[in-house]
Amino acid sequence: MTIPPVKALLFDVFGTVVDWRSSVAREVEALNRAKGFNLDATGFAVAWRALYQPGMDTIRKGERPWVKLDLLHRENLDILLDRFSVRGLPEAERDRLNRAWHRLDPWPDSVPGLTRLKAKFILGTCSNGNVALMVNMAKHAGLPWDVILGAEPAQAYKPQPECYLRSCALLDLPPDACMMVAAHNNDLVAASKCGLRTAFVLRPHEHGPSQTTDRKAEHAFDVVAESFVDLADRLGC
Amino acid sequence: MTIPPVKALLFDVFGTVVDWRSSVAREVEALNRAKGFNLDATGFAVAWRALYQPGMDTIRKGERPWVKLDLLHRENLDILLDRFSVRGLPEAERDRLNRAWHRLDPWPDSVPGLTRLKAKFILGTCSNGNVALMVNMAKHAGLPWDVILGAEPAQAYKPQPECYLRSCALLDLPPDACMMVAAHNNDLVAASKCGLRTAFVLRPHEHGPSQTTDRKAEHAFDVVAESFVDLADRLGC
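^ Those are the sequences you sent over. The predicted structure of the assembly is below.
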């Protein structure tokens, strides 16, 4: 399927491009080995992610000025270490663990699909992750972005319209020349309301084998794909 | 020469990475052919570039709010078309000519050198060009940037300190973990005052065969290189 007017693809990243759950759990396992801890690694990763939306919500509501996701991740990590009864972990080790989010691994089809898509489209991130997080992750995972956009340049967290609209504006493109790519129905609905085209990519194991949410496209998105390689096929790359 | 603490290279682009003079002249030649004009193509390119600094100066002095370089280029183009006695060129053709700056060609060593440097360092632009200009140029010229930084994200034009410092901050790096790469002494002096490391790359033909400025490094920069390939050698890539 060819959609001629689309010039740029804007990507959600956590869950859509990279497997945060397994990757963060792996880093917690490494901490277990290094420190003799016995943390539930997957449980820790899931609990950390569960604090993600509440952390941004205070900013979305205007109760707090915009701060980077790295800082929200760190605040939530300190809460969790306490909850998991980890005491006295030194600052440098907390900082290193916090940067687990900079070292997430891609889904197996992400790099092959993006590499094909890059030949035809501008590839930009439109993630709530901050610029340094996105750049370091791209170096770690080999993600061939053309440009890092999203929450930090926009100073707004998805699904706030400013996050999508400012990303398009930085590319000097109208929203309907941009297509948001995500594995999450709510992200695409918000992008669509801003005038962007939409592509749903199925990630049925983002939340593990018993995932109940986002198991299918729940709205009439422009494209629905099984993987990034399938997306490249469907977009004529 | 290996400089272990440097994590990111920040690049000046116009003149350092791409040959604006020949590239813009080529687009003016194309306009001559298409419209039966007889413009001095190189003279037009040089005159356009001569209006570059004055356009930014009003913003640097605070006499005007920050606007994108695309807009400054367009205002200067309209002035020049009038000066060169081109009347009635339609809006779409003026816009297309203005985007000549999005289609500049790299120096022959730029892509090979950047490709080697990318394996070891984060490669960011720190140009006065706006994000769309930089992204479109990278697609045209095959420039393998990891991230687009510089004037638009910083809302400040080099050599204002905010342009360098905000670029480092977006990477969450201290200035001395970043190295500014430029063919212009004044750019590197300004970056150095902000605490960045500096690499001078010689571009003796940016202004044509009789160039008089920036023919050598005039200060004690950390690295002086003959080309981007030489820079890769000197940085141990």
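The longest strand of chain B covers residues 178-182. The mean pLDDT of chain B is 96.

Shout if you want it in another format.
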